[in-house]
Design goal:
alpha/beta; globular; Rossmann fold; 148 residues; 5 helices; 5-stranded parallel sheet
Length: 148
């Protein structure tokens, strides 16, 4: 299978960059897109059911920050043919990432798991698990390292 366009979802944490650290050769001479789907749950104004939803006031600043961080990360991907960056707000990040992959001819999603279990996983959810379950393109998951 030839993977021309690889998508790397990131929440800008060190853990989310594990695919770049562990398999830099995977990205050589390929198109790589770093994507950051920032959680943003639109709210509706009370008493105005037909008004458009309002997004968090800090969303533009969060998108700008994510873009700057991804540009820094992109500089590490020297072997890639092209590095693209995409940051946006999403009410359900995992769904937004899989939808983006479907619409943008992605051949592979390379992501990292955070290794959450139990209550932390139940409360915080698992974006990686949702992507694995719902993606229509192959997914390469880099597991969390076990603590010594």
């Amino acid at each position: 299978m030839n993977f021309e366009h690889i998508l790397i979802p990131t929440d800008l944490s060190v853990l989310s960059l594990r695919p770049i650290e562990r398999a830099p050769e995977l990205f050589e001479n390929r198109i790589v897109t770093l994507i950051c789907a920032l959680e943003d749950t639109p709210i509706r104004a009370q008493g105005a059911p037909f008004a458009p939803p309002m997004h968090g006031a800090d969303l533009p600043a969060r998108i700008a920050h994510a873009t700057v961080e991804m540009e820094r990360i992109a500089s590490v991907l020297k072997g890639a043919r092209e590095v693209r960056i995409e940051a946006f707000g999403a009410s359900i990040p995992a769904t937004a990432i899989t939808d983006w992959a479907d619409k943008n001819d992605v051949d592979l999603i390379a992501l990292s798991t955070h290794g959450r279990t139990g209550l932390r996983r139940m409360v915080l959810g698992s974006v990686a698990e949702n992507i694995l379950r719902h993606s229509t393109v192959p997914v390469l998951a880099f597991p969390a390292e076990k603590e010594a």
